[in-house]
Every structure is written in C-alpha cells, then in structure tokens.
Amino acid sequence: MFKEEELEKISEARLKYEEEVKKTIQKYPERKSTFTTGGGVPVERLYTPENIKDLDYTEDLGFPGDYPYTRGVQPTMYRGRFWTMRQYAGYASAEESNERYKYLLQQGQTGLSVAFDLPTQIGYDSDHPMAQGEVGKVGVAIDSLEDMEILFDGIPLDKVSTSMTINAPASILLAMYIAVGEKQNVPADKLSGTIQNDILKEYIARGTYIFPPKPSMRLITDIFEFCSKHVPKWNTISISGYHIREAGSTAVQEVAFTLADGIAYVEAAVKKGLDPNVFGRRLSFFFNSHNDFLEEIAKFRAARRLWAKIMRERFGVTNPNAQKLRFHTQTAGCTLTAQQPENNIIRVTIQALAAVLGGTQSLHTNSFDEALALPTEESVRIALRTQQIIAYESGVTNTVDPLAGSYYLEWLTNEIERRAQEYIDKIDEMGGMLVAIEKGYVQQQIQDSAYAYQRAIEKGEQIVVGVNKFQIEEKGTSRKILRVDPSMAEKQIARLRALKESRDNVKVKEALEEIRKAAKDESANLMPKILEAVKVYATLGEICDVLREEFGEYRESIIL
Amino acid sequence: MDERKIRVIVAKPGLDGHDRGAKVVARALRDAGMEVIYTGLRQTPEQIVATAIQEDADAIGLSILSGAHEHYFREVIELLKKRGAEDIIVFGGGVIPDDDVPVLKQMGVKAVFGPGTPTLKVIEWLQEAVQERRAKEHV
C-alpha cells in the first residue's frame, strides 16, 4: 500500500523515534514490560505503515459487499439499515415470555430472540424427572405446539424475524415455528429467522447436547436440505463462537474453532450431496464481543476474510452470498461483574461499540444485572437503549468500516487471521473438528486459556475494575432481581397433562412411528416427519425419546 | 495435624452446561494439593452423593448457574442425611442471588462463593473447614 521510498523514510524516522523512546523510558518506565491484547497477542508500542507494508488494498480489504468482505458484507452497511437489535429473552411460561416480547417490540426492538429453558434444550418435557427444578428457569418452557402458539400469540411471523437458541432439538422447534406460521396464514417461505442448530460447540463449550455426533450431524444437514427447498429465508444454523469464548477461549481461538466447526458442517452437507453455493447462503455465525475493544473489531474483520477464503478456496463456492460471513453478536456475559454491577453498563457499551465497528448484522447487549440473575424489564431497557444510542447518536454508523486503514487495526486483523489459520491447519492435520473434539484437544485449549485468565486476575496482572481493584464495601444490597414463580412449573405440567388427554393419541403414535422409521433410514429426511408430528401435538419430549432410542445419547469426555 | 490429602468432589448437578467455573475451581484445588474428582455435566443428586461416599470425600462443591440452586442443594443435603453422610461438607458457587444465601445456609450449605471470588479464598476456606471436620472425627 506504500511506496518503497516512503517506507524507507518512515524507517529512518522510526529509528530516531526509538532513540527518543529509550531516553524517555529511562526516566519514565512504561507501566509493564510487555503489552498484550486481552487474548494474549503481543502488542508493540507503535504501529506504522511498515507493519502493514504487504497489505494489498484490493486483495485484502476490498470494498464493502465485495470479496473478501473484510470491510463488511453489504455495500452501504448501516447507512442503509442499522443492525437488528435483538435481545435474547424468555423465562417461565409462554404467556410471560410473550408479554416480554411484546414489550421489547414496543420499545423499538427489531427482532426476537427466544431463550428456552434447559429441559426444552435437552429434549425433556416439563414433567420429566430430569426437568425438576429447571422448568422455566433460564428460558421459556416449550413442551408442545400449544406452548409455541401462546409464545407467538399476536406477533405476526411475516413481520418479525425470530432467532431461536436451540440446538439438539432444533428441528422440532423449527417445525413448531413453521406450524405456528401456517396457523397465522404465513407460508414457510415467508418466515425469516435463525435456529442455532450448532451441535459441535455444545460438545465443546455449552453442554446442551443429546445425541452422539453422527446422528446429530445428520439432523443438521436434514435441516439444511429441507430449508433450502421450503424455508429459503431461514438461517439454518448459527455457528457459534460466543459460547467458546464464554468458556474461556481467546479471541483467536474463538475465530479458529468457530470456523473449524463451520468447515465440519460444510463438509458434512457436501458429503450428503448438497450444493454449498445454495446452503452456504443460509449459514450464519454468532460471535462474542469481549473487553479488548480493538482486538474485537479486528477479530470480526479477520473472521469475515478468513471464512470468505475458506468458502471460495476450499469449497469452490462462487456465489458471493455463500462466501459472506453474516453474524450476530452478543456482548460478553463472562465480563459482567456481580460487584458494582452498574459498571457493567459501561462494559456493555464498549463491547457493543466494538461489534458495530466490526460490522455485525445483529446485536444483543447484556443487561447489567446478569451476573446476579435474569435481567429485569428495567435493566433490559437500558441494554436496548445502549444500542439505540450507538445507532442514533454516536455517529459511527455514518460511514462504512471507519477504522479501516489504522496501522494497528489492519496489522491485528492480519495477525488474528494468521493465528486462527494455524489452529485450523492443526485441526485439519488431526483429521478435522470431530476428531479434535473427541480427543478433547479443543476443550483442553479453551480450559487452559480460562485457567490462565483466572490466574492473571488473581496475580493482579489482569485488572477487573471493582473486583480486584477499586473495590468498595457492598453489604446486603437487596437489589430488585427477576424471580421465576415456583408455581409456574406445576401449571406447565398441568397444561401438558391436559394436552395429552385432549389430543388425538392415535395420530400422535402414528406420527412418532413415522419418525422412528425415518431415523432408521439414513437416506430419509427427518424434517417432514417431525413437522407432521408437532402438528398433531406430539410433545418435544416424546419426539426426542424416539430419537434417543434410535440414536443413543452422547457421553461427555471429561477433560480437566 | 491430619496429613491426609483433602478429597473433594466438584459437581455439576442437573442440566446446566456452564462448566468454566467448576473446571477452574477444580483445577485450582488440585494445584493446591487436593485430590479432586470432577464429575462432568448432567449429574443427578443421587450420582453426586454416591460418588462422594464411594470416594470417601471430605467435601462436595456444587456449581449451579441455571437458577436451580435451591432444588439441587436441598436434594444433595437430604440424600447425604439419608445415607448418614451429613458430615461431608457441602459448598458451592455460581449465579446465586445474595438473598438466597441465607436459605441455602439454613439447609446446611457451609459456604456459597459468588462470581468474582478468587480461587485462593475457596482453597483457604476449604482447608480450614476440612481440618475442623477431621478434628471432630478424632474426638
């Protein structure tokens, strides 16, 4: 990007500057002997054109909406439309969550994001013994289509897009959503939204797996195939680095392991005979936005460029829409402190700003009280307002990718890409992501980073404001927090029992048998059968039980 | 002074998949010279108590971030009583509101460590609690 003579001039001037630095340091030493990013990448005192002298503008950055999409996936980015403001929400019953969604939409939120409770995520109905104590706790309890009808009551599915954090039983919840759409006279091809549907990171970092890897990958590719025919606007997967980062990974590891998961899904779908130019357009991603502001921005840009190269060079994808890494971002839950929780509002603001400067397509901002409990209506409103202030007041949305060309940012973008590529090469050598997970390699890498981070905090090398520095006495601050009514589980179980008595149980049995048959036949697609079953009100637990019987259950390999 | 190594079960009861904290604490306790048995995810209270008795553990640490803490602590403590093993120290951590701590303590939970607790604090507390328990054993 720079002329040879110019670089020489800069190099000479830099030597002079370094002499000055030496003198300064003798008098006033720097705060630390080495500086690194939050993810441990060494950071120099100063960056100049020399650090990015090999950068080729058109090859490496290009223009927004053009390969390799470093500067963004759309030509106009936020000058056209802001990112989707999408707060992850859901708790207790379908009625209460429905109320929260309507509130959020009223407050100017532009998309929904459904949080399910753990029994739903792990395929148990609310009356299952394993569900005890967990019903409605971390999200809404959904047992059948009946609950889903209540959840979206009065919310027009042709007007809002809905993201659902559901993985192992993703096909069932998607089927229920399609069925609710039909009842609202919204055909499947008009539905838009996302299912997370990313089982690999469940094995690695999040823990809501049900089935072993092989049948799980089949369920996922069945969805790819079904949706490309019938639900073309649906994002069939949200390949997630968020939870990998929350489990303790570095920024580089987040990019590397997420894209390695992506490679595994594309390979599985290609093996099934699907065209990456087609299903590749509906792959989406989900990243974390952590504390190191510039490293996070560089991370998003690096991930975009790397994925475009992977799709084009490794999978021969020519359709631009199948090369674009579109992503949702959530600010880093693990950075929220229980101490002086109001400080979290500032953390979230910086993290959200990084996501926007990194070119996110949608964003969830955490509420300041989430290290204590589920957020209250007030704290969620502040979180949403944070996004609105960035969008409408900060001015950063006026031009596309405004930090491009910064010597440091471009250098760091390159560096993150390079380091992530090294991990991907290593995983390829091991035989791919499934093998790397089975061997515990990925989990071990993440845990090592998590432990190193904790050690750094305890040694005072990593400062967390209000936790290991600038503490105050905080005694018995009885803060208003959200609590789930304990009688809610009983009501949910009563509704489930009533449903099982009122529905046509002969049809349910037949539909479940059809699922069993399809599960045994690898050439069949499970989605249409699951759709039929949810329409006759077979429950999530019943469908998962059939699949558990046919597929078996995953057992965690414990790495410590 | 009792020189036997402290034996501690670090467990994830129920369906919660957040295991970063549990694993960091398990590793810190191990690095502090304790024998740590980490159970992995999706443990029922029965499994946790059975492991603790079988392993002759001094203590059980439960990590819960799903809001189901009252349920799981109660189950584990009741099962320990049923098996005559209520002398095993029960402690825990996770996302547990301050207001819930007194209820847990009343149940018999000896300590609750919230987000931001240094692992050293857990280590020192556990060493002391186990010494006390063992002193009682010898009386």
Automatic annotation (TrEMBL), chain A:
Bilayer-spanning residue ranges: none
Species the sequence originates in: Acetomicrobium hydrogeniformans
Listed Pfam families: MM_CoA_mutase
Methylmalonyl-CoA mutase alpha/beta chain catalytic domain mapped to chain residues: 37-553
Swiss-Prot/TrEMBL cofactor(s): adenosylcob(III)alamin
This protein's UniProt keywords: Cobalamin, Cobalt, Isomerase, Metal-binding
One example GO MF annotation: metal ion binding
Class in the EC hierarchy, top level: isomerase
Family the entry assigns: Belongs to the methylmalonyl-CoA mutase family.
Protein name: methylmalonyl-CoA mutase
EC number, as in UniProt: 5.4.99.2
Automatic annotation (TrEMBL), chain B:
Cofactor: adenosylcob(III)alamin
Keywords: Cobalamin, Cobalt, Isomerase, Metal-binding
Domain of life: Bacteria
Record-linked Gene3D superfamilies: Cobalamin-binding domain
Xref: Pfam families: B12-binding
Protein's UniProt keywords contain Metal-binding: yes
Span of domain B12-binding: 5-137
Gene Ontology MF terms: cobalamin binding; isomerase activity; metal ion binding
InterPro entries: Acid_CoA_mut_C, Cobalamin-bd, Cobalamin-bd_sf
CDD domains the record matches: MM_CoA_mut_B12_BD
PANTHER family tied to this protein: COENZYME B12-DEPENDENT MUTASE, METHYLMALONYL-COA MUTASE, MITOCHONDRIAL-RELATED
Protein name: Cobalamin B12-binding domain-containing protein
Species in which this protein is naturally found: Acetomicrobium hydrogeniformans
Taxonomic placement: Bacteria, Thermotogati, Synergistota, Synergistia, Synergistales
